[in-house]
Amino acid sequence: MPTQDIRRQVALALEAVNNKKAEDVALLELPGESSTFTDYFLICSGSNPRQVQAIADEVDERLSKDMGVEPNAREGYQIGEWILLDYVDFVVHIFNTQRRAYYDLERLWKSAHRLTAAELLQPKTSAAKPAAEPASPAVKKRAKKAAAKKAPSVRAAAKQSARGAGAKKAVRKTAAKKTAIKKPAVKKSAVKKRAVKKAAVKPAAKKKSAAKKAVAKRK
C-alpha cells in the first residue's frame, strides 16, 4: 500500500481517538528494522473499560466506513484494559491508565520516532531508487502478513519485558535477604570465639592465683 494511503488511515484513527476524548495520545513511527512488523503505533488511554471500548469502536467504525479498512486482528476487547487493533501497517493500542503505565510501550520501543498530526500528513520524501519491476498488490499483502505473523506479538513482548523487570526485583530482594542472614551469623561466630577465649583465660588465672597463695602460706 502506498505510504500516503497508510498515513491517511493513521490520521483517521488519530482523529477517531481524539473524538472519544482519549488521554495521553502518542503516535510512534517505528524504526526501519521493525518495519517488517508494522510501521506505526497509535497509543492512547481511557479512564475506564467503557471508554477504552468506545475508543476502539470509534476507530474500527471510522476506518471501516470511510476507507473500507478492517483490522487484521482484535485483542482484549471484552476485558477493556488493553485493546489492540492490528491493521498490519499500523497498530492501535488503547489502554486503561494502570495497564499503560505497567507495560510502558513507549519505553519498550524507545527507538521509535514520536510524530505529531501535522508531521503525519506531510508528504514523506525518499531517496531515488533504481527502477525495479513492481510487485503486484496481492504479493505485497501476502509478504507483509507473513512477516507480521513471524514477528513477535507486541502483547507478548510487552508482557515478557514486564515479567523480566519483576524477576529482577525478586532476585534483588532474595540477594538482600541472604546478605541479611549472613551478617548476624558472622557476628554470632565472633561472639562465640570471644566467649571461648575468656573461658580459657579464667581457669588459667585461677590456677595462677592458687599457686601464689600456696607460696605465700609456705613462707
How would you describe the overall organization of this protein?
By secondary structure, the chain is of the alpha+beta class. The protein has a domain at about 5-120 and about 140-150: Beta Polymerase, domain 2 (2-Layer Sandwich). The protein has 7 helices and 6 strands, in the order H-E-E-H-E-E-E-H-H-E-H-H-H. The protein has helices at about 5-20, 50-65, 95-105, 105-110, 115-120, 135-150, 155-219; strands at about 25-30, 40-45, 75, 80-85, 90-95, 115. Strands 3-4-5-2-1-6 form a 6-stranded mixed β-sheet. The longest helix is centred in the last third of the chain and has 65 residues, at about 155-219. Mean pLDDT is about 75; it is low at about 125-135, about 135-140 and about 145-150.
Any descriptors?
7 helices, 219 residues, alpha+beta, six-stranded mixed β-sheet, Beta Polymerase, domain 2
CATH homologous superfamily identity of the domain at 3-122 and 142-151: Beta Polymerase, domain 2
- N-to-C SSE string, H for helix and E for strand: HEEHEEEHHEHHH
Q: Please report the total strand number as a whole number.
A: 6
CATH topology of the domain at 3-122 and 142-151: Beta Polymerase, domain 2
The overall pLDDT average reads 76
Name of the level-1 CATH class of the domain at 3-122 and 142-151: Alpha Beta
- Tell me the overall shape: elongated
N- to C-terminal distance: 120 Å
Largest sheet strand order: 3-4-5-2-1-6
Helix content: 55-70%
Radius of gyration: 34 Å
Q: Quaternary status of these chains?
A: single chain
In DSSP terms (H or I, runs of 4 or more residues), the helix count works out at 7
Structural class of the helix and strand makeup? Answer: alpha+beta
Largest sheet: 6 strands, mixed
Q: Mind telling me which CATH architecture of the domain at 3-122 and 142-151 this is?
A: 2-Layer Sandwich
Which stretches are low in confidence, meaning pLDDT under 50 for 5 or more residues running?
127-133, 135-142, 145-151
